[in-house]
């Protein structure tokens, strides 16, 4: 049993009931469209509307008494900051969230509503991330990385534990990838719980830093373009622990363009009447792209979040019509 799996197992036992066990919902309509038996892992129904609450809750749970008094700092395009803000609020831990000026105002307003302090930095996301870590160190605050932290990864890995318990026969799990924390956790759980399940990493073609780093065998910079999948946008910090984990657990990859992401978001809304954000659309678009390889067999798609401005969602659906 590897150390990360043990951390995931500990989190899986310790985080209830604060962290919800989200449904794994069979979708007859999406199954008919793809030819696969499609199950949707409903992380958009998790507290804060995103899987990020899992990793944040686990990190806050493991803080020592001194750190709890001082508070924590983090960086986020929205969902991770929202998860840390709520986890901190529930534990009485002060939270400061550093965010890019390009971050969704819907998400930043929700972070503030949980009592966290938001500091906006006008720079690309990776630069914001590195500056936030420097500022946290200067202030003597523990820094909660969105992905480069074993405690956060272990919290996200509880998704994998639930998948294995909810449907032991899954042949593949499709998940969107940004910094790699979620897929590293899911993959590490399933390689122990269900080693025959293939992990499919899905990226927006406009934001593929970790994908290119996996190809290079080291963290590399890669040009970022605008994407509706703001939850996966941004580079990967040097030395990120997610690179070797992702290389180990990801069995197949999919790169999807913006039109495919928007079409997937629309198909989910038509099939299930759910609003999901761009990052969830990325995973669904990955399945549409690779469905032929899994025809007739059970697969899961992780719908990682729902935090999107209504006008943006409606515009995406309109463009995909």
UniProtKB/TrEMBL annotation:
UniProt entry tagged with the keyword Lyase: yes
CDD domains: Thr-dehyd
Enzyme Commission code(s) on record: 4.3.1.19
Keyword entries, A-Z: Lyase, Pyridoxal phosphate
Pfam annotation, one family: PALP
An example Gene Ontology molecular-function term: pyridoxal phosphate binding
Cofactor: pyridoxal 5'-phosphate
Tryptophan synthase beta chain-like PALP domain boundaries: 17-305
GO annotation terms (biological process): isoleucine biosynthetic process; L-serine catabolic process; L-threonine catabolic process
Family the UniProt entry places it in: Belongs to the serine/threonine dehydratase family.
UniProt protein name: Threonine dehydratase
Organism: Chromobacterium violaceum (strain ATCC 12472 / DSM 30191 / JCM 1249 / CCUG 213 / NBRC 12614 / NCIMB 9131 / NCTC 9757 / MK)
Gene name as annotated: tdcB
């Amino acid at each position: 049993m590897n150390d990360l799996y043990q951390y995931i197992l500990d989190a899986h036992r310790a985080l209830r009931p604060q962290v919800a066990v989200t449904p794994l919902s069979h979708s007859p309509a999406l199954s008919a469209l793809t030819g696969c038996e499609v199950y949707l892992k409903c992380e958009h129904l998790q507290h804060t509307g995103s899987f990020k609450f899992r990793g944040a809750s686990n990190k806050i749970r493991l803080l020592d008494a001194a750190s709890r008094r001082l508070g924590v700092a983090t960086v986020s395009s929205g969902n991770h900051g929202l998860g840390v803000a709520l986890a901190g609020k529930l534990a009485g831990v002060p939270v400061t969230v550093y965010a890019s000026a390009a971050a969704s105002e819907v998400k930043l307003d929700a972070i503030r509503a949980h009592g966290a302090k938001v500091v906006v930095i006008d720079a690309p996301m990776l630069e914001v991330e590195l500056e936030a870590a420097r500022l946290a160190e200067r202030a003597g605050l523990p820094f909660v990385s969105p992905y480069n932290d074993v405690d956060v990864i272990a919290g996200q890995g509880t998704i994998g534990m639930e998948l294995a318990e909810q449907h032991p026969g899954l042949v593949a799990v499709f998940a969107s990838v940004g910094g790699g924390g979620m897929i590293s956790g899911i993959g590490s759980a399933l390689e122990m719980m269900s080693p025959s399940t293939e992990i499919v990493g899905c990226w927006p073609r406009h934001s593929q830093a970790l994908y290119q780093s996996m190809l290079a065998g080291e963290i590399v910079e890669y040009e970022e373009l605008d994407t509706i999948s703001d939850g996966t946008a941004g580079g990967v910090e040097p030395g990120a622990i997610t690179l070797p984990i992702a290389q180990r657990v990801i069995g197949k990859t999919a790169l999807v363009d913006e039109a495919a992401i928007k079409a997937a978001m629309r198909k989910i809304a038509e099939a299930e009447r759910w609003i999901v954000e761009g990052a969830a659309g990325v995973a669904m678009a990955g399945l549409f792209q690779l469905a032929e390889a899994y025809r007739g067999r059970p697969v899961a798609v992780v719908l990682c979040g729902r935090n999107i401005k209504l006008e943006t969602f409606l515009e995406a659906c309109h463009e995909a019509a």
